[in-house]
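[agent] plan:
  1. take the single chain provided in the ticket
  2. run structure prediction with default settings
  3. attach structure tokens to the ticket
  4. add a short note for the reviewer (M.T.)
[agent] executing step 1
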Amino acid sequence: MPRWAHRYLGWVVLGLAAVTSTFGTAYAVLFGTQGGLIMTAGFGFYGAAMATAAWCVWRSRQEGGPDHSLWGRRMAVLAAGSAVYRVLVLPVFLWRTLGGDDGDLMPWEAEQAWLNIAAVAFTPLCVLVADHWPLKDRPRPKTL
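[agent] step 2 finished; step 3 output follows
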């Protein structure tokens, strides 16, 4: 990829990460989520993780060290976290779809529990994937 394209796309991704983390978290806090307080906290944690990763990508680029690509990988995997969340809640969708008009295959309490577990689990899952992605003899990034 040409350097100018990498830089341009990097700014686009940083901007989108800032918008997503800010407004997504604000929406979840102001209007709530289907899963209640636990799900709202999970989405808040995701927004904080996305904003932190975006800031660290920018900061590591300013410092010129090798951490830029590693933080970029973390941010990319977190950005894909929305799709990961959709996969985690797929059983609830299938239970609702296969349950007919009343969607009785899954009790309401079990559905809420599953949605809350998925909302809290998907961010650490994304961070674990990003941190353990195969590296080519590169050092691990510094902590904040």
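[agent] step 4 note for reviewer: The CA atoms of residues 41 and 101 lie 31 Å apart.
[agent] ticket updated
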